[in-house]
Structure formats: structure tokens, C-alpha cells
Specification:
With 320 residues, the protein is an alpha/beta fold. Helix content is 45%, strand content 12%. It folds into two domains: 253 residues, Alpha-Beta Plaits, CATH 3.30.70.1290; 46 residues, no CATH class. The protein is built from 14 helices and eight strands. The strands form two sheets. Strands 4-5-1-6-7-8 form a six-stranded mixed beta sheet, sandwiched between helices. Strand 4 and strand 5 form a beta hairpin. The chain is globular, with a radius of gyration of 21 Å.
Length: 320
């Protein structure tokens, strides 16, 4: 039985989620269509551009993404702190950058006189928008609807472009976050669409490598790496970027049979810090999509009450 999205996404459990959205019938609607002898590769660029644009409006940070020919993956972080810090004016500016303002909001923005009832209605409206700006469901909805509209217009047709619901997985700890990001960034490698992470088009790892080559600290629109946890930790991914890139490269060489002759058999340092064995890690990076949660046994047990579940399917990583 399909679970309500509210039972699968809970800030009390974790702010990190791995989401997947697939084209209808898993057709290659963003790649090469052999039946029509047409290439729709450019649509992957549409998805990437819209994804990164939305991340600048929503209080949702993009940690990793991979846009494939018939589906896409994203690892998202709900930035509750940013959402709560927004003024009412900020909320309106963000929400209305994608929507037409209601007449009552136009009146408020012009600082016209309001009745008490109108002011209360505006307050409720802005609070609703504030919550939506930190909602993964709304984020995915505005991404998918936009792409479907463009694709249907290009095809001269109507109907569904994406499967009805996106899949989400709760990433319950650092180990789960690292595994999901690596899994996502290596999608083109597993699919034999690219030979290396840095040549994987429409992925976050390529965007981060390209930024490094330009001598910039952080890829635009992507959640930054801020190093390992410490007392005064800034908001960001709790790893070092270079450690993560080394991990992605090492993992990619293991999961591609034709790359195994170039494997460095010394484990990346980040695996030791996370307390994950080579076997567990490689299993996680190939089987991650199974179930609704990813995390250590202890993390899964701790999350069950907040997810309102007695048990849950997912990938369990051994406790250190």
C-alpha cells in the first residue's frame, strides 16, 4: 500500500532525502527515442537548469543530482533554519517569482489600507507559502510540472510525462548521506553513459569538478561541503570536497568492470571515518534504492516513531 508522503518525509527524522522521478512507462523521453528516431538529450539540460533555479527560491538545498535519459535522481536538504529566518516580504518575493500574486497580496505589497480580516487572510497565505518553500513535495511538483509542460509543447501533445509520484528515501545519518550522494553521482558510470565522474554530463559531481577547475570554492546553486563536524559547524555537507571526490572516483572504478585494472586498493580515508567496510560500501552504492530509508540500524530504530512506523523497509548499514 502506498504511504502518505508525510509519513516518508519528517524533519524530526532527518533533513536529507534521496528522491527519484521517472518518465512514464520509463520511456526515453529525455534521451534518444529509437521508435521516432529523435534525440531529446536537450531536455536533460531543462531539468538541470530548472532544478538549480528552484534551489535558489526554495529553502531546499541540492546536495547531488544526476539527470538520466528516462529518470533523474536528487539528494535534497531541507533548510529549516533558512525558512524560519525569511521575512514575510522575502517569502512573497520568492513564491511570486514563480506565481502570479493574488489581488489581496498585490494590495498588501502596495501598502494599501487593509481590513482586519484581509490582514489575517494575508498572514495565513504567507505562512502557507513559507511552509511550501521548505516542502520537498512542492519542490518536486514545480520541477516536474514545468518540464512536462515544455516537453508536451515540444511534442505537440498532452498527457503525463512523469510517473504519478516521485520516490523518496530518508537518509538518516552521515553514512547514508555519503552513500546516496555517491550512488547518485555515479549513475552515468553504472549505465555506461560516461567513463569517469568528471565526464558525466548533467551531474553534480561534474559541476563541482568544473568549478574547481575554475578555481572557485563552491559550485553555484549546490549545497557546499563544509568539512567534518566540529563545534562551530557552518551549514553544509559534513565532509571535505576532495575526500568526497576521491571516494566517488574510487567507487566508480569498482563498479565498472572495465575500470578494475586501475583501482587503488587503499581505502579512501572518508570510509574509515564513517566506519564502513569496503564490502558494505560497495553494496550500498549499487543497491541503495531499495526501501524508504537508508541508515545504520541504530538510526533506523530511532527514526521509526517520527516516521510513525513500527517497521520500515530500507538499506540498513552495520553500526560501527
Amino acid at each position: 500500500m502506498t504511504k502518505a508522503r508525510a509519513q516518508l518525509i519528517s524533519l524530526e527524522a532527518t533533513p536529507y532525502y534521496h528522491c527519484v522521478s521517472r518518465c512514464v512507462r520509463r520511456s526515453f523521453l529525455c534521451g534518444y527515442d529509437s521508435e521516432r528516431n529523435q534525440c531529446f538529450e536537450h531536455r536533460r539540460g531543462w531539468v538541470e537548469e530548472r532544478l538549480l533555479n528552484l534551489s535558489q527560491v526554495f529553502c531546499i538545498d541540492v546536495c547531488a543530482y544526476a539527470i538520466m535519459s528516462n529518470h533523474y535522481h536528487v539528494v535534497l536538504h531541507i533548510n529549516q533554519e533558512e525558512m524560519q529566518s525569511l521575512s514575510d516580504q522575502d517569502v512573497c518575493e520568492r513564491w511570486l517569482s514563480f506565481h502570479t500574486p493574488p489581488l489581496l497580496i498585490q494590495k498588501w505589497l502596495k501598502q494599501e489600507a487593509l481590513t482586519e480580516a484581509e490582514a489575517l487572510k494575508i498572514h495565513d497565505m504567507i505562512n502557507t507559502w513559507r511552509e511550501r518553500l521548505a516542502s520537498i513535495s512542492w519542490f518536486m511538483r514545480m520541477l516536474n510540472q514545468y518540464i512536462a509542460t515544455l516537453a508536451n509543447k515540444e511534442d505537440g501533445c498532452t498527457g503525463h510525462f512523469w510517473e504519478g509520484r516521485f520516490k523518496s528515501q530518508a537518509l538518516l545519518d552521515e553514512q547514508a548521506l555519503a552513500a546516496a550522494m555517491t550512488y547518485v553521482d555515479l549513475n552515468p558510470i553504472r549505465a555506461n553513459m560516461a567513463d569517469s565522474p568528471e565526464t558525466s554530463e548533467y551531474t553534480s559531481v561534474k559541476a563541482r569538478v568544473d568549478t574547481l577547475r575554475e578555481s572557485k570554492a563552491t559550485a553555484p546553486c549546490l549545497h557546499p561541503f563544509v568539512g567534518y563536524p566540529r563545534t562551530y559547524q557552518p551549514t553544509g555537507i559534513p565532509f571535505r570536497l576532495m575526500d568526497y571526490l576521491e571516494l566517488v572516483d574510487w567507487t566508480g572504478r569498482h563498479i565498472r568492470d572495465d575500470k578494475r585494472g586501475h583501482i587503488n586498493h587503499i581505502l579512501p580515508p572518508i570510509l574509515s571515518r564513517l566506519g564502513i567496510s569496503k564490502e558494505t560500501w560497495l553494496h550500498a552504492c549499487t543497491e541503495l534504492e531499495r526501501g524508504n530509508v537508508v541508515g545504520k540500524e541504530e538510526s533506523v530504530k530511532r527514526a521509526l516513531p517520527t516516521l510513525k512506523r513500527k517497521r520500515v523497509s530500507g538499506l540498513r548499514l552495520p553500526d560501527s
